[in-house]
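Quality-control log, excerpt.
Job 1 of 2 completed; input and output follow.
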Amino acid sequence: MTDAAGRLRVAMVGYGFMGAAHSQGWRVAPRFFDLPAEPVMRTIVGRDAGRVEAARRRFGWERAETDWRRAIDDPEIDVVDICSPGASHAQIAIAALDAGKHVLCEKPLANTVEEAETMVAAAERAAARGVRSTVGFSYRRVPAIGFARRLIAEGRLGVIRQLRALYLQDWLTDEEGPMTWRLDKEQAGSGSLGDIGAHAIDLVEHLTGSRVASVSGTLATFVEERPLLGETVGLSGTASEERGQVTVDDAAWFTARLEGGVAAGAIGAFEATRYATGRKNALRIELSGSRGAIAFDLEAMNELQFCDATAPAGEQGFTRILVTEPEHPYMANWWPTGHAIGYEHAFSHQVVDFVTAVATGEDPEPSFADGLRIQRVLDAVTRSAASGSAWTPTA
């Protein structure tokens, strides 16, 4: 479903970190990929008129708007891209889908399982009318992840018995760092668990085709009060002398049992923290199978470590593969062989896949139902940590 000129006119709600990344994706994707529809960056939405206008100019949108409802009511909008805090996801997504707009919603899908369930119901109603929706788990679109998934599908790892999935950051290690919406449960839903742990869970399920069936978790909050933001300067703010309460987890750990797919019966160890001193954006996945293993670290995102356990004993061990060849997912559209790409390219690939699905009438992945499943895992970890239960089912 496009307009008469074969365009998809986009309204994006939110203009912070994710708004910048999504803007880059919308702007760059049609210049490097031959898309079946032309995305048009029509409207950017934010509550502060001055700041959203500054973002409009900076990111290259045609119009600025302060009310997302007006963007949804605009007959010239075909797609609504939701980059706002999690507390707003359900309301905006449901309204957009019911209005016949395709929806790309940032992860995690919602702040609660109940909200996610209402979003899935809206997505199912909309799909019956040809309206598409997807969740922005952008790391699925990193070429090394796509290549790893291909190796697993080809049976190169055999049966996966054990896995480790960690997302390690350190941007909260300064306890005088200011409060942000990401530290407020009302806005964010959860802390490290939902913000970055959701990525680790999704990648494990995406790579293996298996599902996290039960979990045993622990959550911790290390710093319970932080300075509030004071005067706004540009698109950011300065710290004030007032302090706010941190109401989310700073770090999460859990073990998991998986079912289905090539990792049926496997045990997984997961960690998500924003207190891992020295780790800037280390999303690390290691899958150990009967025939081989893979290891990936987002801080070396153009590389995949692969161990072929079927090789002669004297030749076994991890081999570094530079994932920059035209044969690797997405890479044929970028630079000559051996030239690396960066974090922002995953958002261009996300646009490519979403626009292609919408234009060809297919259901994009991951679906809202996939997002709901991740939400249920997050909820099970939270319940397990609160109760001290050894194992908590995710369904």
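Job 2 of 2 completed; input and output follow.
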Amino acid sequence: MTEPLTARLSAIVGSRHVSTDPDVLAGRSVDHTGRYRGRASTLVRPGSSAEVSDVLRACRAAGVRVTVQGGRTSLVAGTVPENDDVLLSTERLRDIGDVDVAERRVHVGAGVTLAEVQRAAGAAGLVFGVDLAARDSATVGGMASTNAGGLRTVCYGNMGEQVIGLDVVLPDGSVVHRHSEVRSDNTGYDLTALFVGAEGTLGVITGLDLRLYPAPRTRVTAICGFADLDALVATGRVFRDIEGIAALELIDARASALTAEHVGVAAPVDGAWQLLIELAGDQTGDDLTERLADALADAELAGEPAVGVDATAQQRLWQVREAVAEVLGVYGPPLKFDVSLPLSAVSGFADASTELVAEHAPEALPVLFGHIGEGNLHLNIVRCALTGAAEQGLYTAMMDLIAGMGGNVSSEHGVGSRKRHYVSMARSQADIAAMRVVKSAFDPTGYLNPAVLFD
């Protein structure tokens, strides 16, 4: 090195896009939950794939580790640096191409937020298939890297099913442009699928071709209350296979009590458990309402459901679900678990996890919600003051419980650095060895996102 790395990075991206300010770096070295902190040496914000390429080459030559950051909404410390890393932010990769209405697709930069994609699609009379509560800050590059799911997964699938092309800068600085104008393309390895869900360990996603869908003409939303979780799960099984299902969300009454107390959003139904259902299609509102009523005919409800047909009523019902994210931090950073379970195990997990929390943290409040159609649940331990070994003890015990019930330790948030010690609970040693071979092939020195995925 004949000059400091910061000088080389400034020459690549411009000095105003490089920072070594301790306050800036401290703010960028904490995860979205506020529970996990790291340390970084430099922040660099390239504005193109070419600049990302040059930045990676400079960092690799200097022997410096790089942590990639998008909207920094990771809930598993996926963007927290551990080794005085260079933070490579994709926030300046902001281009949004023209929406191709005929082919229903759009090309966007990795730093574009989910909300911006949704607005671009909506202006063209289309919809984007993934929706998250963090839509205003989550970037599509990060969402692809973690294969995010969200509120519409039961209808459209995860992020991987929306990504039909990528621009990726590899750890050696070379740039892969995987784009195709045809719908059927079976030539060689599916590199797009390889990078989606890789959590930035194999390369930096800089641009994406995203699939869009026709906007449904009509929606009907309902919230149903249940006294018994098994009864809710049984109803969820019915709805997840119904034509036109657009959302299927579980909320427990503890979450609703928090939203009522702190943001004034109360559940419109009684019961210890609530199920938000949305149907969508080109039928009339009456047709969808009739379909909803028919599917609920045998459900063991705690009372009459609350149904919204017009947009205002639907938005009011959705607030019950989306307000949960606003209140989880009212007692400090929550301890979060993102898990997948067989539907048959959901009720048992709810009981057993509550007992486990009471054993380890008696003052804490377990709050359960999530995408019940996929068995993807978010357990948040609110008012959890545990730190250090005590926190680790609860975390490990919960991971053991999840694995013992046939679940997966990570569903839609990824592994990050928080769950890397538990990958062997969901993957065999042969699986992990194969993943390490892939990582080594792309990144022999292991400098890119080094804290993520692998123990």
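Post-run check on job 2. The two ends are 31 Å apart (CA to CA).
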